[in-house]
Amino acid sequence: MGQRRVILWLSMAVAGLGLVAALFLSRQPDDLATEAGLALPAAAVNGVAITQELVERELVVSRLNVAAPLPPLADEDLERAREEALNQLISRQLILQEAGRQGFRLEPDVIEAQAELLFGPEDDEALGQALAQAGVGWSELVWWVGEILTVEEFVAQVVMAGAAPEERQQVYNEWLNARRAGARIEVYVGDQLQVVRPLTGAAAPDFSLTGLDGGNVSLSDYRGQVVLLNFWTTWCSSCLTELPDYERIYRQYSPEFVVLGVNLQEEAPHVRQYAAGLGLTFPVLLDQDGRVANRQYQLVGLPGSFIIDRQGQIVYQHLGPMSGETLVAKLAALGL
């Protein structure tokens, strides 16, 4: 297996878990913001800040390719990558905090061996050139691999221990959602701090968005029906994997149940092509400026789903891919 393929496999294995590496400063966000010359953090998880600098470093290290350097990101692709990196860092920090509380750690020689397996030895000339071009060093690379490997092993050995293979993803998703529900997550939007609060039990924020057919659709149009509000993008592989299940369940339970698939910040022709390819018949809406996802629903990570009852209350909130079995069980609890 080639080097790049290996690192992509490792990243994807924990990506369904929403994880990638970064360094963190254990000080309160407001303190960080007021220090001379130090920019506001991008986010904070239980008081542990994730700075903009660390998000940028994550982008550089995670895209390192010794054999064939990847082209630089620009414009919308760069902004999208930054958002995704931040979302991943938030999820990863939740897991690392729990691993730390349980005293879970990997030995340095294990991490070093994995780094060499993936990228080659520290004195490799090609690796040295790639690191220099990226503006990072061997220690940062080892640290990056160590963070990913620690999370992957903690999830496998602790979180999913004893779960049947077909249940592992669901066990992980439920565990991470529980961690999120009990955490204080803060995200900076511009220079404004936004606290991400669990919305379960609250009234679902109403909104109006344009559908793929050009018509205007409001959440309140579906009052009296059970709604699955699912946020997705075409570049999110986990999103695309779960959508066919939602389509099947939508057809089975309609008209008492509706799926609103809210695409995040992509152009209509591109989204329309993917929706047609997946055979989606439920309404697909376009959140082109991210206002609904990021501000009203405070979405952190993709995919993200909310189940809304007939009275317009959020009864379930889910980060990451949600299985069809889970959705059906939640609908049964609502009388469907």
Descriptive key words:
alpha+beta; Triger factor/SurA peptide-binding fold; disordered N terminus; 336 residues; seven-stranded mixed sheet; 17% strand; four-stranded antiparallel sheet; 2 domains; Glutaredoxin
Protein model, in words:
- This protein has 336 residues and is α+β, with helices and mostly antiparallel strands.
- It folds into two domains: 3-193, Orthogonal Bundle (Triger factor/SurA peptide-binding fold), CATH 1.10.4030.10; 199-333, Glutaredoxin.
- The protein has twelve helices and eleven strands.
- The protein has helices spanning 3-15, 29-34, 52-62, 75-101, 108-119, 125-134, 138-159, 168-181, 237-253, 268-277, 291-296, 324-333; strands at 41-45, 48-51, 185-189, 192-196, 208-211, 216-218, 226-232, 257-264, 284-287, 304-308, 314-319.
- The strands form two sheets. A seven-stranded mixed sheet has the order 6-5-9-8-7-10-11. Strands 2-1-3-4 form a four-stranded antiparallel sheet.
- Helix 1 packs across helix 7, helix 3 (52-62) packs across helix 4 and helix 5 packs across helix 7.
- The N and C termini lie far apart (47 Å).
